[in-house]
């Protein structure tokens, strides 16, 4: 059982996200937070700096695709188009940041889990970490392979009149929330070499709480400044969720 979080199955995804903000400041974790934080600041910060100079042109292009008979809904379609662009952009560049920082993200999740459970993780050292990099990157590619075909279908929906301008952004937000939950929960699962399919199945059994967790990450990732620190916060929140809700069914008592 954990000693940092309440072992209560009624705790929801919002709770674990809020908990992540507290956990990143814990003694002994700060040095593991720095590298994921720097990766996010450099990649997501640069990407959003560029986007905010281009988003007006992108929205205008999208609004040109709206049929004349739907122009009276422009007041609704315009903000939905902005949200749609931000969601697509956010997920793409946060995924890129996660791929680059994935070995360090896994290390942060591992160290935090050790603190929560009191069980010392195996010390593989720098050599062990380097040897594990190809497997970690392969895992990231597995997530991308799961994401891409679904994302393409949602993108194609945008070109369907009415549906594309109203329903597609909402579906994209829900799908993005699910992918954020997968992205960050995967670090503690992968630290225990649990397959992607098994991890996904476990999250689906608790889908609403994971959607809550992913939704709030989605929202914060679109907020300037706050989005720069979201990666380590989400990793810590997901690790706490793993310890409370999933660890017992996937590992033996008292063992890493």
Automatic annotation (TrEMBL):
Q: Work out whether the entry's keyword set contains RNA-binding.
A: no
Query: What is the protein name given in its UniProt record?
Result: Sulfate transporter CysZ
Q: Which GO terms describe its molecular function?
A: high-affinity sulfate:proton symporter activity
Q: Which GO terms describe its biological process?
A: cysteine biosynthetic process; sulfate assimilation
Q: Where are the transmembrane segments?
A: 32-52, 72-93, 144-164, 210-235
Q: How does it sit in the membrane?
A: Multi-pass membrane protein
Q: Identify the species of origin.
A: Proteus vulgaris
UniProt-listed PANTHER family? SULFATE TRANSPORTER CYSZ
Write down the InterPro entries for this protein, in alphabetical order: CysZ-like, CysZ/EI24, Sulfate_CysZ
Q: Where in the cell is it found?
A: Cell inner membrane; Membrane
Task: Fetch the NCBIfam families from UniProt.
Answer: PRK04949.1
Task: Report the superkingdom from the record.
Answer: Bacteria
């Amino acid at each position: 059982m954990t000693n940092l979080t309440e072992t209560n199955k009624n705790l929801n995804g919002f709770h674990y996200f809020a908990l992540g903000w507290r956990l990143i400041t814990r003694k002994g974790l700060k040095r593991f937070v720095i590298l994921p934080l720097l990766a996010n600041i450099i990649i997501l910060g640069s990407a959003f700096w560029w986007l905010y100079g281009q988003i007006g042109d992108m929205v205008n292009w999208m609004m040109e695709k709206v049929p004349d008979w739907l122009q009276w809904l422009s007041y609704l379609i315009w903000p939905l188009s902005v949200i749609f662009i931000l969601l697509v952009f956010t997920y793409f560049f946060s995924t890129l940041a996660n791929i680059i920082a994935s070995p360090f993200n896994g290390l942060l999740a591992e160290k935090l889990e050790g603190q929560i459970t009191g069980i010392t993780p195996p010390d593989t050292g720098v050599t062990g970490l380097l040897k594990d990099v190809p497997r970690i990157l392969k895992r990231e590619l597995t997530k991308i392979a799961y994401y891409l075909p679904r994302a393409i279908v949602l993108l194609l929906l945008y070109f369907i009149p009415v549906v594309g301008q109203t329903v597609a952004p909402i579906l994209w937000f829900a799908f993005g929330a699910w992918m954020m939950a997968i992205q960050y929960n995967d670090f503690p699962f992968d630290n225990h070499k649990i397959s992607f399919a098994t991890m996904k199945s476990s999250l689906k059994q608790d889908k609403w709480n994971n959607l809550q967790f992913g939704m709030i990450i989605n929202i914060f990732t679109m907020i300037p400044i706050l989005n720069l620190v979201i990666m380590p916060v989400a990793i810590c929140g997901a690790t706490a969720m793993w310890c409370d809700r999933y660890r017992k069914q996937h590992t033996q008592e008292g063992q890493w």
